[in-house]
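User: I'm curious whether this sequence folds into something compact or stays loose and floppy. Could you predict its structure so I can see for myself?
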Amino acid sequence: MSGADPVQVVLDRLHGVKPTGGGWTAKCPAHDDRKASLSIGRGDDGRVLLHCHRGCDLDAILGAADLTRAALFVPSDGNGHSSGRPPVIAEYVYREAEGVVRYRKTRTADKQFFFAKPDGHGGWITSRKQNGDKPVMAGVERLLYRYNELRERSENASTETFRVYIPEGEKDADNLWPLDLPATTNDGGAGKWTAALTAQLKAIGVTDVVCLPDNDPPGRAHMQAVARSCTAAGIIVRVVELPGLPVKGDISDWLDAGHTKDELLALVAQAPVWTPGEATEQTVLGGRTLHLTPASQIKVRPVRWCWQDRVALGTLALLGGREGIGKSLVAYSLAAEVTRGTLEGVYYGTPRAVIIAATEDAWEFTIVPRLMAAGANLDLVYRVDVATGEGTEATLTLPKDLAELERVTRESGAVLTLLDPLLSRLDASLDTHKDAEVRQALEPLVAYASATDSTVLGLIHVNKSVSTDLLTTLMASRAFAAVARSVLIVMKDPENETTRLLGQAKNNLGRADLPTLTFTIGNYLAATTDEGEVWTARLQWTGESECSIQSAAEAAAASTGDRSAKAEARDWLSDYLTSQGGSADSAKVKREALKAGHQAWPLREARRALRLVCEGRGFPRETWWSLPASREERSVQS
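Assistant: Here's the prediction. I'll summarize afterward.
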């Protein structure tokens, strides 16, 4: 673990971790903690600070987390010396006129920002909290970045026009100055521009600005706020979107890609003067802009299906079921068909790639053999791995890694992303039982699916309740089912233990009358290697079931609950039909059964147990149920 950040090492051993203004909170492992009583911070020397507000001592906390006291300290640099807190990789100094330092901002290798101000004696009053904590920066007026140089440029200008470029970060501004393009920014990043900074631009004679947004929604919203503020102050504004930027890319990325100053100036020359628009078209709220689009201007489109009528492209779908029921087999079988171009849908006949993020099964022992058994084109199946900035490996975490996931999805041409299981892919700081926090992860995931025109299929366990409401059986928050456009459920056939059912518990975009599919699971020799034979499970589709997945759930609930309900319904149904001469209109039977206290599912089971004959009669056609003996008697009479 040499070189590892001790804070991250400790956080990885805790549960319920959430960031706070000056550190983190988590559930204390030393007691049954339901309120996240443990505070975690970083000392000035980089060590981890732990405090349980319930009074657990340090050794008890470390023991419960399987840690030692040594884990709290920054690892040695190899010479027996502590390497201190994560190293500073950038420092940005904010200077007044004449170069007097007002404050500085530093960025560390673990992507944290810290502020400091001069103490008046040649030293610094430092911040050990992110983003300029109030005690350190209290009373310090924020400056435009490189304010002193902007002011000097303005005083020496030979023309009345003074144009300044405004990107989102200090690094971007620094990269523009060598091109003789004066640039500035604010110290807080996106969303932190203020009217005071606009006043500083105006005071030093800036006549027009060029806003250069990062290629993401926060970046664009930030530059819209800058543009509104500057326009209101009488400064001419142009907003320039840089072509060819990757997601979250900025002007530095654009220049690194080989673009030149002349190209940038050409884009600026073509950009129109920014105007705020009519008040009826947008409303400004806290630096964010709302745009209204008439429905008449929205072009309607048909739904495009990854799996015809069941799972749509551009959406999140869920595949739920008990552990060991065969969810993963279904998912990998669908993935295999996508890679072969044999799945009914938009890409039928066109093999496409699939991305899989799985943690519960080993790729070499389980996942690849299952894909082989399903006949997948393994060249089109990709395992997704994460490499951190420190060179270590990590697992895919959402929504943190969505931008990179979107990039590799576009590069590979993948149309299906499997998350197995979905809950393991969500950021550990999110409480998966709270709707609001689940939506923080799922809604960006839906946006990713829409942007890439692909499908996200998340595997999710169901609880052991006997509820017949299939959506409520999904583990964790109800928001999972609410955000997903379709929910597929795998369960055992209540009438055949060896058969599995795959049906829809929800389908917002497709048909509601799709049949329930049936399959069995068998053994398959996937490969013979130098180490021996590789056996795996293989799914075999066996057709369709007359029983809907809802009916199967009701029957399963009945089998674990009051089994007499079916017997009582059977006796009642037999008596009722006998009293009606052996047959009756099914609609009337159902009404009378309900009056007698027999619900739909035991009545269906009773009909099957009695082997009733269903016949269509008259016009318009009506369905009649008949006892088998009654049909035989009618045949003799005729």
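Summary: The longest helix spans residues 435-452. The two ends are 89 Å apart (CA to CA).
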